[in-house]
Amino acid sequence: xxxxxxxxxxxxxxxxxxxxxxxxxxxxxxxxxxxxxxxxxxxxxxxxxxxxxxxxxxxxxxxxxxxxxxxxxxxxxxxxxxxxxxxxxxxxxxxxxxxxxxxxxxxxxxxxxxxxxxxxxxxxxxxxxxxxxxxxxxxxxxxxxxxxxxxx
Length: 152
Hints:
Number of strands: 6
Largest sheet: 2 strands, antiparallel
Strand content: 5-15%
Oligomer: single chain
Number of helices: 4
Mean pLDDT: 78
Helix content: 40-55%
């Protein structure tokens, strides 16, 4: 069965998982309420929006390329770097990254901004169109290629 990637996380779950309590929950403030309140949730149930990175063509076919390939690849690359940063920080050390780790961090940091819902307004009124899908894919893949070349 092909993964549907319906819940597209703005903050990747693998980052959220580093801050769970002993019961596997996160404490989170939901600012959508008139009076913001602290809630306890599973990491998979916060900081996501359904189909945020999914393009749906005129026939209803779902293209999950951004989430299933681009963002998953970035999250796989950044995982050991994040573990290193958190581990050093918990020892009260300033994290020290080598040049490759730094390049991976920089690329991940850049895409964290780009994957936020606020930045999706770049292509207004084209969210489900073939033009928008190709434009977004080309921009993201070009930036990944550039950042990888900088690592060399």
